Amino acid sequence: MNTNTRNYLTVTAGYWAFTITDGAIRMLVVLYFHQLGYSPFEVAMLFLFYEVFGIVTNLVGGWLGSRIGLNLTMHIGMGLQVIALTMLTVPDAWLGVVYVMAAQALSGIAKDLNKMSAKATVKTLTGEGAAGESKLFKYVAVLTGSKNALKGAGFFVGAALLQGFGFRNALFILAGGLFLVMIITIALLSSGVGKLKEKAKFTQVFSNTPAINWLSGARFFLFGARDIWFVVALPVFLYDVLGWEYTAVGAFLALWVIGYGFVQAGAPALIRPNKLGQGPSGRTALLGALVLALIPAGIALGMTQGPQVTPVLVSWLTEVTGADLVWMATATAAEIQSAVLIGGLMLFGIAFAINSAVHSYLILAYADADKVALNVGFYYMANAGGRLAGTVLSGLIYQTQGLEGCLWWSTGFVLAAALLSLWLPRTPQTASANALTRTIAQTAAFPQPAFVDVNAHVEATRLAELYAPIAGRAQGCSVREGDTVSAGQVLLRILPIDADTAEHQVRAPWDGSVARAYARVEGREVKAQTLLFELFDPDSLVLRFSIEGSRTLGLTPGQRVQARFDGAPANPIELTRTRAWPALEPETGQRIFEAQLPERADVAIGMAAQVRVESAVAGQGPALTTLTDTMPT
């Protein structure tokens, strides 16, 4: 297993372990402190600092990681979670509201530090260029796709530990397990993993794109609509009113979250592209919110009117169908409310997951290509703000208006999200098209050089891999890494194990250098088709880099680029761009370029550099102004 794969598995395992404890501690706090006599509003206030400090951490976490390294911030997050868990093991007399809020503040900081670090660290493990971006897509899909399922599992784990071992023993078990995971990840991850170089200004966190601001507002109300009933009101209602045990409460919430995650992952298959092949649009978000708003309203009506309506409904169904529906006629009010609540929340979970998936798609569709990370960060700050509002209101409204009141407030929040969705562009391309129109118009009015700065790596375009054609023993290896070889030179002899087979000589196919030699040990037995040597042509070295497709207008072979190698940043060199890929990479939307390095350049394959490219369209503003007439609005 190579180092990057091991690091990826280590980071993922650490993130999974943390996610389980994050779900478990939430369930432990809600159920245990309600048992101690805390009012629903007081229980909700226990999570106030958890959400507030989560928002703050979203703002400063990336800034901190860029200075001390992402693997260190990940382990700080784990350590803070261990401290937060152990803080709650003190005697009940110490567990005042302020004390528990402080522990939850640490947990909130820990959660967002760990999430930010784990996801950003994966980026550093996949490398640069198109191949790295393709690998990143797959790695992040595995990392994030499992989050909801594991958080749901955490709800069940917390409730089960509370019922089986008690509150404090449950906390000790969680803290001890996470501490062990932290020690293992510290041992397995090198200190340099995830150290970032790029630093954004703090003011760049806030978006100036209208579509992203409207979408972020809608996201705020969408997630607030969920947490108004989910965080405090629902578990307290199930335990206090319906008489469910801790394990049953945790199991239901766990299954709801896990099911929500599965539906969200399958949302692309449920929402078909339009006639032009485009994905969801602002209209999709609007219609989805309107449909979603019907569900909590229907649940609230069903819970209040269900016991009165059921006898009439049973009588009518019996008359129409002739079926024996005695079991429905004898159902208690609590049983009817339970059926309405569970069935309705299942429908809410399906509709909410689809709405959330549409929002997640639109933020990427609307984001500027060169500010996607900042735009997404702003969007998730709104997401965290919605969770904060929903959490506080969940306890307050449940205490004053009951679960039905929470559901009506949820309906109002969803309608607010629908109202904000009215201003979203009707097609996913509109926001980026308008941004491009503005950019071109500005370029036309103020023609000036447009520079693109990207990372690059040294690669060889002429390579050879030499394999053993037969099984045998290696003899007479005459080269090592870095040696120069000539065409036809014998590099290695293979003495066959089978006496009836002739000796085979491995020869260099052309003049070049040895990049890797895998069979230098005299007498080592090799199997047929074993890789023996990797050769490269030193005169074929290039700097390869990729640029977002929308920024490659006018970039053609023959233009000059400026390169700065990491080892000598103060001494840039000028190179000629020799090749441009004719198609964008399907996974990343980027176009690959190569710049020729001087013959026998003193560089190594894989060496990193920074390349500055001047776009050829910079001085052609007037010629491009006609494009604005064809852009969709």
Automatic annotation (TrEMBL):
The keyword Cell membrane does not apply. This is MFS transporter. Keywords: Membrane, Transmembrane, Transmembrane helix. The chain crosses the membrane at residues 13-33, 45-64, 76-102, 171-193, 214-238, 244-263, 284-303, 339-358, 378-398, 405-424. One of its GO terms (molecular function) is transmembrane transporter activity. InterPro entries: MFS, MFS_ArsJ, MFS_trans_sf, Single_hybrid_motif. The lineage of its organism: Bacteria, Pseudomonadati, Pseudomonadota, Gammaproteobacteria, Chromatiales. The keyword Repeat does not apply. PANTHER family: MAJOR FACILITATOR SUPERFAMILY DOMAIN, GENERAL SUBSTRATE TRANSPORTER, MAJOR FACILITATOR SUPERFAMILY MFS_1.
